[in-house]
Amino acid sequence: MKSILDTINLNILKQIVENSYNSIVITDANLNNDGPKFLYVNQAFTKMTGYSFDEIKDKTPRILQGKKTERSVLDDLKNKCKNGEFFSGTTINYKKNGEEYNVEWNISPIKDESGQIIKFISIQKDITKDINYKISLEEKVKEQIEDIRKKDITILNQSKLAAMGEMVDAIAHQWKQPIGIIKLNVDMIKYDFNGKLIDEKYINKFQKSIFTQIEHTLNTLETFRTFLNPSEEAKTFNIENVLKNISILIKDEFIKYQIIIETTIEDSFEIYGFENEFKHFILNIINNAKDAYKNKKGIEDKIIKVKTYIDNNLKIIEISDFAGGISNDILPNIFNSYTTTKENDGGSGLGLYLTKQIVEKHNGNIEAFNHNKNGATFKASFL
Fold first, then answer.
1. Looking at the domain covering 4-126, what would its CATH class be?
2. Distance between CA 358 and CA 271 in Å, rounded?
3. Is 4-126's fold the same as 231-383's?
4. List of E strands, the chain
5. Alpha helices, H only, 195-299
6. What are 77-135's pLDDT values in tens digits?
7. Strand, helix or coil for residue 188
8. Backbone angles phi, psi at 373, to 5 degrees
9. Does residue 164 surpass a pLDDT of 80?
10. From CA 119, how far away is CA 109, in angstroms rounded?
11. What does the radius of gyration of the chain's CA atoms come to, in whole angstroms?
12. Which terminal residue of the chain, N or C, has fewer Cβ atoms less than 10 Å from its own Cβ?
């Protein structure tokens, strides 16, 4: 069966080549000295380079090369041509006026009936616009990444400030009782001195009481200092110890609002990562539940349930409240930045966004949903 090329006469074929959108070049097969010489170029080549055929006749493609033309590409081209193989590549060439352009081209050998290479044919395309567009797109992506990075830094700093404020408030609550006891002891010593009640036994008792309260405040301060300082390096930590430490941090604050935290350790497990950051994730959710109870009137049993267990090799932490649940309008976007469940309470929308970042940093995933007992559950799963 004859191909369509067999039915096209020479004149039609010439018109096809002449009017091709891509540059077409035919050279001889001489690979010695300066290389093969131009035998034919079409109009697209002249438009692309600025050279007419008369200007480059008997010259080699080196006329198009310059300081930015990649040597490695030319070496590959030469080797492929010597071996009679198909070549494809890209590099920078130069127009007649010295202007650079990015060229994509391929070269195929033309052989006679005996298999001897007699010519080379090359199809070339100016891809400068494509390259510039790609560079422009990459720059835009870099700018967007930088904008996101700056936004995340801003969010993180705002969240840290918010957490710092909460910690200072918690410290004040923790210190209120021991400071009050110390003040009472100091006030009483003057009256007891006037009443001649002070003796060695009294001094020993007084000293023990003061030292006990001082030790309590120092221990509290150390707990908060450790919590606020970023972890220097990742390590393995136990979830049960994490929950106990958090309980110390929030104890007085939650007593104030008559909120009970019920912790159920069905399975104890270890997490590898940054312990203090991990505490922030749990504390953020517990504080959200606390705020939900504060904003709801008429709830008698204010309970927050924290449960840990292992399911299908996943380490799971569930934190549930019974404060009415999360609005269906907010729930799908609950972990997005600046989405807040506290619109009437000055919420920034940063806590849960940062929570998600912390969970994912520790090879985990977190979801939020409303349960059928009129409340919300946050479920974090870790590998």
1. alpha beta
2. 13
3. no
4. 23-28, 38-41, 87-94, 100-111, 117-126, 235-238, 259-265, 270-273, 302-311, 314-320, 364-371, 375-382
5. 200-228, 239-256, 275-294
6. 889 998 989 999 999 999 999 999 999 999 999 988 888 999 999 999 999 998 888 88
7. helix
8. -105, 30
9. no
10. 6
11. 39
12. N
User: So where are the chain's domains?
Assistant: 4-126, 139-229, 231-383
Given CATH 1.20.272, say whether it is the number of domain 139-229.
no
CA 313/CA 275 separation, integer angstroms:
21
Cα angle at 279 between 276 and 284, to 5 degrees?
A: 130
In Å, what is the CA distance from 236 to each residue of 13, 242, 278, 281, 313? 74, 11, 11, 17, 17
Q: How many CA atoms lie within 13 A of 215 on its CB side?
A: 6
Residue 34, helix vs strand vs coil: coil
Listed residue (331, 338, 359) closest to 152, CA to CA: 338
3-state secondary structure of 133: helix
Closest CA to 302 of 247, 262, 258, 339: 258
Q: Tokens 């976007």 identify what position?
A: 333
Using one digit for the tens of pLDDT, what is the confidence trace for 313-342?
999 999 999 988 888 888 888 887 655 555
